[in-house]
Amino acid sequence: MTDLDPYELKILRELQRDASQTTAQIAERVGLSSSPCWRRIDRLEREGYIKRRVALVDRKKVGLDAHVFAQVKLNAHGRANLDEFSAKIREFPEVLDCYVLMGSIDFLIRVVAADIEAYEKFFFEKLSQLPGVQELNSIVALSEIKATTELPI
Predict the structure, then answer these.
(1) In 3D, which of 62, 51, 86 has the Cα closest to residue 72?
(2) Number of domains present in the structure of the chain
(3) Which uninterrupted H or E stretch holds 67?
(4) Shortest CA distance to 4 belongs to which of 47, 33, 36?
(5) Furthest CA-CA distance within the chain
(6) Which GO terms describe its molecular function (predicted)?
(7) Which range of residues forms the domain containing residue 103?
(8) N or C: which end of the chain has fewer CB within 10 A?
């Protein structure tokens, strides 16, 4: 899988579960003393296994009740400008994720907004105005069954 030893894999699992733990807490959970655990965490960060540590905010508690997936199809001219579309989509804080797809749809984006009316405004004033957009299909998520950031390592 990787060049990681079993302790490093355990450390990554612990950090994915709760990155606010102290090194001592992680060390205890993975079966190491603090110093070797800290050295491993430091190496994992330096080598890019750990991109960053963040707090996961509950979107509903901060008033972002609408969760929408949008499928974007670019016109033939737009396909030549994938970089331009990609750069523009990165500017929108409402867009949490954006993926380039193979097949009949070019991009899948995940969007949050205060409510459907706010999404509608975003859709008409920003998303549909992007260069090369031929077709947009919005899919509103009714409820969340599973959402995780933990990779299966």
Answers:
(1) 86
(2) 2
(3) strand 66-74
(4) 47
(5) 58
(6) sequence-specific DNA binding
(7) 59-140
(8) N
